[in-house]
UniProtKB/TrEMBL annotation, chain A:
Keyword field: ATP-binding, Nucleotide-binding
SMART domains: AAA
Pfam family, one: ABC_tran
GO cellular component: plasma membrane
Domain ABC transporter: residue ranges: 3-224
Superkingdom field: Bacteria
Protein name per Swiss-Prot or TrEMBL: ABC transporter ATP-binding protein
Organism taxonomic ancestry: Bacteria, Bacillati, Actinomycetota, Actinomycetes, Kitasatosporales
InterPro entries reported for this sequence: AAA+_ATPase (IPR003593), ABC_transporter-like_ATP-bd (IPR003439), ABC_transporter-like_CS (IPR017871), ABC_transpr_LolD-like (IPR015854), P-loop_NTPase (IPR027417)
From TrEMBL, chain B:
Any single Gene Ontology cellular-component annotation: plasma membrane
Primary location recorded for the protein, binned into one broad class: membrane
Pfam family, one: FtsX
Protein's cellular compartments: Cell membrane
Coiled coil feature spans: none
Bilayer topology term: Multi-pass membrane protein
Membrane-spanning segments: 15-35, 257-276, 297-327, 339-359
Domain of life assignment: Bacteria
Keywords attached to this entry: Cell membrane, Membrane, Transmembrane, Transmembrane helix, Transport
Domain ABC3 transporter permease C-terminal: 259-366
Organism for this UniProt entry: Streptomyces griseofuscus
Designated name of the protein: ABC transporter permease
């Protein structure tokens, strides 16, 4: 399974506020590899995640995920792709207030159309995999920043995503937890065999990545 | 649904608070509805139970016609002679009396012709009988006030002595329990001057109105012509309720209160869900980013609103009913199951309509906000 971005251009805003967020960007991402997207703020990292994750339709170009052009899908089909083929881990606000750790995953399963009871065991396995087996009944306000990110990772993996999109995972956690989280994301990428894109400013994440794309002036300037 | 239930559980404090407000609004609407029906019954139930289709009043009286208008013999006879029409004189007068056991009561004396269609008969004891002109059949309400079969009821000030011969169902007029007497006795009550002892033959042969049973084709011009000939103004029985003292004012007051409550209910529910939706906009954006469809979020929000509104309304209905049982017959409160069900359905509907104000915001949440796309 690969993710292929072909000549993607995205403009945002209207009239005098219209800006080009991505310009003629092309890239191919392989399964089982962690790719770090780096670049200054405003260089288009988050826009790239949004386009790849079927949250935003490009003005031009194709987004081929396993042969399906996400850019050509209707809103409804893109929503279906998001809930069944793509996993997200956002910088913050990942969790639903008031729900326990386990319920976060069951809620995601419900959104994806699974019967929560049917995925309970897998949810617990994933939470154990990210080291949260002892936090099943805890609510977001009872978890640390790192633990909240781990819950988000387990939730993203619940639907067996072909594509895992991660936005600044270490921005809100301390160094030790950031290192743990980075290793966890890299490990799960390799073990679950998904295409993983991580937008980051963190050199530790870059170091752990299999590949790095530097975003400059709304284009991928170089691949390391 | 699972997600909606999870959220309800997680935010149960807020939903309980909102549910409590819905309970109070529903209970208040139910209570006002009960008083509206009860007060209405208390004012016109004696008229409502008349098996007449129309009431003919003396022409020229526009309000409080039972007290202010008088039908004379010529008009009464004219109506009696109308082909296909059943007509019988009806007297209505508010008075007071004291029983020989010193029970003081107010009563609405209804003068009816024994055996006519306006004669209520008797559930206990005997019905009115021309052979016993000073007999009185009292409403069960008077019986519960302490008036018993066989009692002698003396009309205050004019001293007419009536014998309680029977009781009939609950009926009242102008918040006063009804007591049925013969038309001759009613004329004595209505026209006797205190301190005199006029015999029926000396009193005017007049009545408050004529109770009519008109055939279906007796309307329009035919009715107008008949009214013109008999110098009457005939109205359908329902419209005659307005002639009862205070009926229109009460209806207007209670209906206004109900209307305001029906306006307040959707605003309160709408305001809650508007705040609730604004508060959870980031979570809605997260759910959209995770692939939840707009329709699903809509269903999710409606399910939560329905749970709060329906449960709150049901508890409110139970509270209003409980109040009805608690107050019993001490106050004019009546909340039949059909009225309660219709009122509560209306509360639930306007409550849900209130929550619908927020639906647009739910469907327009942008999942891109999760990524902070401006970075």
């Amino acid at each position: 399974m690969t993710l292929c971005l072909d000549d993607i251009t995205v403009t945002l805003g209207r009239g005098a506020y219209r800006t080009t967020a991505l310009r003629s960007l092309s890239a191919v991402f392989q399964e089982g590899l962690l790719t770090a997207l780096v670049g200054p703020s405003g260089s288009g990292k988050s826009t790239l995640l949004a386009v790849a994750g079927a949250l935003l339709r490009p003005d031009e170009g194709q987004i081929l995920l396993g042969g399906t052009d996400l850019a050509a899908l209707s809103d409804r089909e893109r929503a279906r792709a998001r809930r069944t083929r793509i996993g997200y881990m956002f910088q913050s606000g990942n969790l639903l207030t008031g729900l326990t750790t386990e319920e976060q995953l069951l809620a995601a399963a419900s959104v994806a159309g699974h019967r929560p009871r049917a995925v309970r065991d897998r949810a617990r396995d994933l939470l154990a995999e990210v080291g949260l087996a002892h936090r099943l009944r805890h609510r977001p306000d009872q978890l640390s920043g790192g633990e909240r990110q781990r819950v988000a990772l387990a939730r993203a993996l619940l639907v067996r995503p072909e594509l895992l999109l991660v936005d600044e995972p270490t921005a809100a956690v301390d160094r030790t937890r950031a290192d743990d989280l980075t290793r966890l994301i890299a490990r799960t990428t390799h073990e679950h065999g998904c295409v993983t894109l991580v937008a980051t400013h963190d050199p530790v994440v870059v170091e752990a990545a299999d590949r790095t794309i530097v975003m400059l002036d709304h284009m991928s300037a170089s691949t390391v | 649904m699972f997600l909606a239930l999870l959220e309800l559980k997680a935010a149960r404090g807020r939903f309980l608070l909102m549910g409590s407000v819905v309970v109070l609004v529903a209970a208040l609407v139910g209570i006002v509805s009960g008083f509206t029906t009860g007060l209405g019954d208390d004012t016109v139930s004696a008229l409502r139970r008349l098996p007449a289709t129309h009431i003919a009043f003396a022409a020229g009286t526009d309000s409080d016609q039972f007290a202010r208008g008088l039908i004379d013999r010529r008009s009464a006879d004219g109506w009696r002679r109308e082909k296909g029409v059943e007509a019988t004189p009806l007297g209505v007068a508010l008075t007071r009396g004291t029983t020989d056991r010193h029970v003081e009561v107010d009563l609405a004396a209804f003068g009816v012709v024994p055996g006519a269609f306006t004669d209520p008969g008797a559930e206990d004891g005997k019905p009115l009988d021309t052979a016993e002109p000073y007999g009185v059949v009292v409403s069960r309400q008077l019986a519960s006030d302490g008036v018993r079969l066989g009692d002698t009821l003396t009309v205050d000030r004019i001293g007419i002595r009536l014998k309680v011969v029977g009781t009939t169902g609950r009926s009242s007029y102008g918040h006063v329990p009804a007591a049925y007497v013969t038309t001759d006795t009613w004329r004595r009550i209505r026209f006797t001057t205190p301190g005199t002892d006029a015999r029926p033959g000396d009193l005017p042969l007049q009545y408050s109105a004529m109770a009519l049973k008109l055939p279906a084709d007796f309307g329009g011009k035919r009715l107008t012509d008949a009214d013109h000939r008999h110098r009457t103004a005939t109205v359908p029985l329902q419209d005659a309720f307005a002639a009862a003292p205070g009926y229109q004012g009460e209806r207007l007051t209670m209906t206004s209160i109900q209307t305001f409550l029906f306006l307040i209910a959707p605003l309160v529910v709408g305001a809650f869900f508007a705040v609730w939706t604004v508060q959870r906009t980031p979570e809605l954006a997260l759910l959209r980013a995770m692939g939840a469809s707009r329709r699903r979020l809509l269903g999710h929000t409606l399910a939560q609103a329905a749970a709060v509104v329906v449960a709150g309304t049901a508890v409110g209905a139970a509270l209003a009913s409980a109040l009805g049982l608690f107050v019993g017959e001490r106050v004019p409160f009546s909340l039949p199951a059909t009225t309660l069900a219709a009122t509560m359905a209306a509360v639930a509907l306007v409550g849900l309509a209130g929550s619908a104000f927020t639906l647009r915001r739910v469907t327009t949440v942008d999942p891109m906000t999760m990524l902070g796309a401006a970075r």
